[in-house]
Write a structure and sequence with these properties.
Number of helices of chain B: 0
Oligomer: heterodimer
Strand content of chain B: over 45%
Shape of chain A: globular
Number of helices of chain A: 0
């Protein structure tokens, strides 16, 4: 299994541009998550999904959109990039919610995004 | 709002020493998770705690879920160079959210 894969690894955007961060998992996990990590900080939840066709907002959803058309894929869309969205973005997946015995989240390697 | 304090922010220790770090919160949580993040990588789950007072080990790592449910502790015994990284506590907040601390950056001096 490849686990959780993310593309691209690095990206530089100009203010106002848009882009999609890709995330794929091959573990047949129902739960998928998008986090952002600002320098020297912990991770903050942007959006999550409990299954195909179901998404919900996390702690910091403004400026982002998601979709979940398949179990495997959970892309994150930035429509109008702003400097405040400069961060490292992590996708994660889990078999159960975080509190379940099998709820441990598996993280991808991250996408480092800079908005200038 | 909810607050989560993780300490210390950073530690410099000699190889072979034991390490202790903790997280305290203003709120009660029912699940505490501990993650480690290596440079340029995503976090990796180390230990999960589900019950107040629970003490769980994973090799040289031992974590405890505080009896008040407002804190958790992580100990690493006999540190080795590959223990270097950032350690995060992450109590579960709501049904599907983890509340990450700001991390403890560990440096092990050979």
């Amino acid at each position: 299994n490849a686990g959780v894969t993310q593309t691209p690894k690095f990206r530089i955007l100009k203010i106002g541009q848009s882009m999609t961060l890709q995330c794929t998992q091959d573990m047949n996990h129902n739960y998928m998550y998008w986090y952002r990590q600002d320098p020297g900080m912990g991770l903050k939840l942007i959006y999550y999904s409990v299954g195909a066709g179901i998404t919900d907002k996390g702690e910091v959803p403004n400026g982002y959109n998601v979709s979940r058309s398949t179990t495997e894929d959970f892309p994150l869309r930035l429509e109008l990039a702003a400097p405040s969205q400069t961060s490292v973005y992590f996708c994660a997946s889990s078999y159960q919610p975080p509190g379940g015995a099998r709820g441990g989240q598996f993280f991808g390697p991250g996408t480092r995004l800079t908005v200038l | 709002g909810q607050q989560l304090n993780q300490s210390p922010q950073s530690m410099f220790i000699q190889e072979g020493e034991d390490v202790s770090m903790n997280c305290t919160s203003s709120s009660i949580f029912n699940t505490w998770l501990w993650y480690k993040q290596d440079p340029g990588e995503g976090p990796v789950l180390l230990i999960a705690l589900y019950k107040a007072g629970e003490l769980t080990s994973n090799g040289r790592l031992t974590a405890q879920f505080g009896i008040t449910r407002k804190d958790s502790f992580l100990n690493i015994s006999a540190s080795i160079p590959s223990d270097v990284g950032i350690y995060f506590c992450a109590p579960r907040r709501g049904a599907n959210n983890l509340f990450f601390g700001t991390g403890t950056r560990l440096t092990v001096i050979p």
